[in-house]
Amino acid sequence: MISYSSVRSVITGVLLALAFCVGCNSQTNAKIPPPARNTVLAQKPGKETAVFAGGCFWGTQAVFERVKGVLDTTAGYSGGSASTATYEQVGQENTGHAESVKVVFDPSKITYGQLLQIFFAVHDPTQLNRQGPDVGTSYRSAIFYSNEEQHKVAVAYIALLDEAKVFPKPIVTQVTPLKGFYDAEAYHQDYAMYHPENPYILVCDKPKIDTLKKEFPNLFQEYHGK
């Protein structure tokens, strides 16, 4: 069986040819507004967890590890069972997983709502079961909430974005409880940082980092690895 990482290499040439026509990150020209309902900054430092799925986890991780207040990120799989949480199995698109990123953040430095705002700014939440060239349920847009407050903030924010017609089509992002997160293989961790010249990274993931830096300059920080 051809690995899905090999498939990504095969489509690299096509990606480059299409880069000037259809960018992987060209979902909207509108600025993403902040959520009306949000958590407040905690009085003391601490740790909370958020899990987001927005297409290939390489780019999602590359964004959130560059956000001030984020303490750690891990690329992995959510939405399926532990027994099938491997890259080769997930790539067959029958395990129920989504490529996801676990974000551990300090709630005294950044709010969950701010993380959501960044999440919606760097991927296309109107694409069903895909992001750009990556097609399948493992590339779906999803928010895996850790508690009821995260659930309420996420649902209210999606409603706000849809009502304001920030995106040209309705948002299809799933909002579902986090039942399990399984770390991806070691070579996926910090993949974009270690492979900055990979054409896939240049076309699909670097624009996400550029968006973060441009739209959220006060939250952007350089990242050089753990």
Head-to-tail CA distance between termini: 33 Å
Number of helices: 7
- What is the succession of H and E elements? HEHEHEHEEEHEEHH
Total beta strand runs: 8
Q: What overall form do the CA principal axes indicate?
A: globular
Secondary-structure-based class equals alpha+beta
Could you list the spans in which at least 5 consecutive residues all have pLDDT below 50?
1-7, 9-23
Which strand order spans the largest sheet, edge to edge or round the barrel?
7-6-1-3-2-8
**Major sheet details:** 6 strands, mixed
Mean pLDDT: 90
Proportion of residues in extended strands: 15-25%
Kindly describe this structure.
This protein is an alpha+beta fold. The chain is built from seven helices and eight strands. It has helices at residues 4-18, 57-64, 87-90, 112-121, 148-163, 191-194, 199-215, and strands at residues 48-54, 70-78, 98-105, 130-131, 134-135, 141-145, 174-177, 181-183. The strands form two sheets. Strands 7-6-1-3-2-8 form a six-stranded mixed β-sheet, covered by helices on one side. Strand 6 (141-145), helix 5 (148-163) and strand 7 form a beta-alpha-beta unit. Helix 1 crosses helix 7 (199-215) and helix 2 (57-64) runs parallel beside helix 7. The longest helix is centred in the last third of the chain and has 17 residues, at 199-215. The chain is globular, with a radius of gyration of 16 Å.
